[in-house]
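Task card 7
Instruction: Convert sequence to structure tokens.
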Amino acid sequence: MSPPSIAILGGFGTRSPPKTPHRLDGIKAHDELRRAHESLNLLKDLSDRLPNPDLITRTADRREAVRSSQIEGTSSEVDDLLTYEVTGNDEGMPPDVHVTKNYLIALQYGLEKFVKVAHQQLIASW
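Output:
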């Protein structure tokens, strides 16, 4: 596969993805697919052993909320959000912690809706 190329558009450099191969190496693709399945099985086995798998998604959700809100210019961090959630007190917190918490609420709402719609779609297709 060829490396990505860089093009100059309007004075800014942009990266183009590598060209899509016209042919796939069936053996190589099969090996990659097998390794991906093995990795997913390992991940499932490990997550089944966790006493509370929500701890991982909970942290990931909060990181996503912090990063998304930072795009809009907020300055709170994951530790700030976790502290605010545990204590309910915003004393000493960046004022943006409320905004970041709202991003988290919106993310959780969107994920719940997505799961419901996806489940309905799966049931409807049976």
